[in-house]
Amino acid sequence: MRKNLLNFSVAAACVAGSCSMLHASDLSQYVYVESNLPVSNSNSIYALSRGSDGNLKPIPGSPFLTGGAGVQYSGPNLGPLDSDQEIITNPQQPLLFAVNAGSDSIAVFHIGENGALKPVDGSPFPSGGNDPVSVGLAGSTLFIASQSGDFGRPSTILPNYTTMHVGWEGNLVPISDDTNDTSRPFQSTVSVAAGSSPSQAYFASGTNLLFGADFLGGLLQHFQLDGQGQLHSLPPIALPASEFGATTPRLPLGLWSNPKQPILYVGYVTANRIGVYRYNEEGELNFLRTVPNAGQGICWIRSNKSGTRIYTSDTATNLISVYDSTDPEEPIEIQTLTLAGVGNAFQISLSADGKSLFVLSQQAAATVPAGQGNVLHTLTIKGDGTVTETGSPIVFNLPAGVRVQGLAVVDLY
How many CB atoms sit inside 10 A of residue 279's CB? Predict the structure, then answer.
């Protein structure tokens, strides 16, 4: 029988009354990272398998071409490389979705039982915007944030949030031909201000709500999703001035929700704090407070399945912070861990079994020597939720100026 993703296969086995037949030894864990190579048809997905010793090794055939190109810009400016969810997976089929930011398309792959990737027919698919940087999934609806902010490939197309339907075989189909039609309460594409730099397309599980962070625009976007997969845009929200210095730009970067409570966490990257919001069924956001972060440049956020621990990457200090979120409205930082080697911590991803945290570092600062910094770290999550770095880091040898980005973890039986 074909393997499936961890949650799906466990549920199916338990329904069949065979939970006891599933053992940890039957579990295979695969990690996917996007090379982000900017040359036409050179972008690819590194596929790695985790062995019994905890170390990662390439899957035969890796890297797998996406059929597109990565980000063209290779300089120090904020925006072009500041994004999350460049790679995501679908637990039902299983599928992997990846952005081709430099060629305005989305690659879709079938995940084989050995972790290998096979493009679905027709992949890659047009993204519905310029410079797609992030994807989210709500059932059969794919949510795409397009930044239009790649300085190496300037465009007059406004950045946008758009939706597409995911077909049975993984093909992407536009929801509607009508875009940016403000006469309709729901539409498949919503444009935002030029230069606002959308960085994440985040769907809050168990709701019909989608959230976005306009990084350089300093705004939180929030949307309702209708039964047809179209978006109803709610008024965007600025970050509260009270949490920033008089001359500090108010920039959001990193979104994640508590899995048990309607709480949204937002990285206040320039203030080194986490913003805590409560939302209702209509998607309205109510700012509650911020909590401090010991690192600098807090960016991306993840929560464990129980909602009792939050993990953040702190880019400027190359460390991971762990929070006790037993009280989801007031998380408390309980650990900071500096990653081995040099680099800048960017995307993070938890394994489905909750035992591992993977961290992708980039060469994002002048202090990181040329040819270094593009590293995948493996962290073990201990019983109390704190972390320790284990295994041998994976170093990606890429041309100067190219920064890996995008990280997804799949557990297969």
Answer: 19
DSSP state string for 360-377: EEE--STTSPTT---EEE
What CATH number does the domain containing 387 carry?
Answer: 2.130.10.10
Q: Is residue 1 part of a domain?
A: no
Peptide bond into 369 cis (omega under 30): no
Structure-token pair, residue 361: 């570092």
Structural domains of the chain, count: 1
Does residue 329 fall inside a structural domain?
yes
Instruction: For residue 20, give the 3-state DSSP assignment.
Output: helix
Q: What is the pLDDT of residue 41?
A: 94
Rg (CA), the chain: 20
Residue with tokens 């039982």: 113
> Is 327 a member of any domain?
yes
Interatomic CA distance for residues 165 and 173, integer angstroms: 5
**Which of 283, 285, 357 minimizes the C-alpha distance to 275?**
285
The secondary structure of 278-339 as a DSSP string is EE-TT--EEEEEEEE-SSSSEEEEEE-TTSSEEEEEEGGGTEEEEEE-SSTTS-EEEEEEEP
Residues 44 and 55: their CA atoms lie apart, in Å, by 22
Whether the CA torsion 352, 260, 280, 215 is positive or negative: it is negative
Q: Domain span at residue 85?
A: 6-412
Cα dihedral 303→217→295→279 (10° resolution): -30
d(CA 311, CA 330): 14
- Is residue 260 in some structural domain? yes
Residue-wise pLDDT for 54-91, tens only, equals 889 999 999 999 999 999 998 888 999 999 999 999 97
Q: Is the pTM of this model over 0.90?
A: yes
